[in-house]
Q: What sequence folds into this?
């Protein structure tokens, strides 16, 4: 019996050492590598399985699938990308630096778009439902959270109606975000002819432990002609109907023009990973009369070779000269983003960060208190939204560029989630976002350094402890 126990202990520590080498070679941050190596070497009995569930830095299955689909997608791109030449933005016509954005997006910024700012749930779902009603060929739907509540059932009825009238409807959901979605909801869609699939982040035996990766994208595309993306999922709380959250503050976009095909491409790739099916979609660019806005769609995720979302945010911050306003419900940015915000404030930029007053994820909420005092001391202004829960993900640079999408300023969005962002270098749109955020700041309170310093010691200790867990929150 003694030799059996000794053998098991040896194998556990061997597994810990082997996994520690993998963590050393693959971790995206030095802090993460050190933390994992110490834990794996000293406590391999529980840390090895935890690492393979929560610590893997890249979505390797998706990387492989992307390599497989590239051959197929290239054939599609050969047919539709040449038609985009007339719509590709020229650097001299755009405020801000676009080359880095295009490199991060791996697709060109386009002109000839129309961008409509959709503030809060009522306006967003009104626009979304109208777009679904006007569909003629196909509808692509992708959400992180879908619930079978009042708005979720209304959404289902819309999709079923269109599927029963002969349209091709594709419904992609994240099985973790939509864990409470009943099987009957999905069966109703399938019986009506809707093609339904979970994202399947743990698809296949080699990837069954990748449950920490999530598809956080919200995308709807109708006929390749109109697209929607932003912060809202399909659930009653996004309309302010859940008392726990109160008034729900969120922002979404409606896009028309060549940028819609970029949204479509992101869905196309995710659908291929989830199902292995190659969708035959329309890739014709729909010209929009009198539309002049420039847009870059930037998908990001753990299959990328670089930290796309974090780099995009840092690029925007470094470009700010007068104003940098950020809203995020989950604000635990990496050190690169924290330092960029502080540097912007030190060079005289009006840096404001708007976060919720009331939390819906306690660990993330507590983690922010670990670094907020330093940010405030260096001139970054932190505000907390008062009327209800703030969920919008926006970033405003000076008076010329705004970003709206699904990216939160935390490790999960930067490294673990599949996300998508609309980067819009347009003064008219930036003006609309400015007016929207001015209204939000008017209904917020500024956090002071004295307020944070007055917290009891135990809360400061808890904040520092939870901050250490930020890589897996």
A:
């Amino acid at each position: 019996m003694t030799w059996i126990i000794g053998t098991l202990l040896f194998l556990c520590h061997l597994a810990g050492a082997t996994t520690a080498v993998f963590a050393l070679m693959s971790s995206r941050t030095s802090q993460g590598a050190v933390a994992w190596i110490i834990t794996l070497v000293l406590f391999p009995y529980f840390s090895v399985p935890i690492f393979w569930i929560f610590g893997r830095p890249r979505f390797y299955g998706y990387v492989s699938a992307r390599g497989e689909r590239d051959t197929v997608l290239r054939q599609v791109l050969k047919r539709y990308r040449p038609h985009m030449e007339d719509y590709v933005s020229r650097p001299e016509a755009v405020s801000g630096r676009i080359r880095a954005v295009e490199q991060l997006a791996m697709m060109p910024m386009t002109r000839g778009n129309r961008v409509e700012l959709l503030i809060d749930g009522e306006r967003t779902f009104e626009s979304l439902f109208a777009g679904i009603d006007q569909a003629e060929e196909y509808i692509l739907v992708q959400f992180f959270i879908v619930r079978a509540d009042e708005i979720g059932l209304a959404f289902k009825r819309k999709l079923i109606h269109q599927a029963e009238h002969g349209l091709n409807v594709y419904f992609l959901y994240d099985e973790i975000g939509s864990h409470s979605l009943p099987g009957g909801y999905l069966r109703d869609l399938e019986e009506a002819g809707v093609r339904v699939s979970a994202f399947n982040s743990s698809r296949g035996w080699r990837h069954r432990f990748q449950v920490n990766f999530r598809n956080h994208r919200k995308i709807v595309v109708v006929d390749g002609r109109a697209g929607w993306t932003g912060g809202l999922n399909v659930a009653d709380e996004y309309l302010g109907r859940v008392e726990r959250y109160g008034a729900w503050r969120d922002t979404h976009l409606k896009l028309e023009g060549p940028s819609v095909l970029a949204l479509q491409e992101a869905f196309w790739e995710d659908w291929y990973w989830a199902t292995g099916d190659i969708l035959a979609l329309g890739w014709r660019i729909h010209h929009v009369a009198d539309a002049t806005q420039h847009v870059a769609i930037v998908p990001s995720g753990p299959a990328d070779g670089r930290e796309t979302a974090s780099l995009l945010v840092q690029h925007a911050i470094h470009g700010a000269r007068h104003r940098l306003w950020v809203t995020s419900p989950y604000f635990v940015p990496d050190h690169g983003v924290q330092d960029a915000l502080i540097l912007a404030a030190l060079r005289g930029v009006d840096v404001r960060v708007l976060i919720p007053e009331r939390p819906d994820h306690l660990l993330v909420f507590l983690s922010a208190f670990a670094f907020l005092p330093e940010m405030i001391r260096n001139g970054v202004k932190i505000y907390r939204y008062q009327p209800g829960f703030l969920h919008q993900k926006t970033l405003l640079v000076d008076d010329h560029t705004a970003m709206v999408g699904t990216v939160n300023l935390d490790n999960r969005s930067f490294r673990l989630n599949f996300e998508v962002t609309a980067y819009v270098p347009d003064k008219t749109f930036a003006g609309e976002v400015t007016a929207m955020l001015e209204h939000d700041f008017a209904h917020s309170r500024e956090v002071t350094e004295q307020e944070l310093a007055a917290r009891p010691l135990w809360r400061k200790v808890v904040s520092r402890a939870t901050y250490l867990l930020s890589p897996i929150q």
Q: What stands out?
A: DSSP finds 17 helices and 20 strands in the chain.
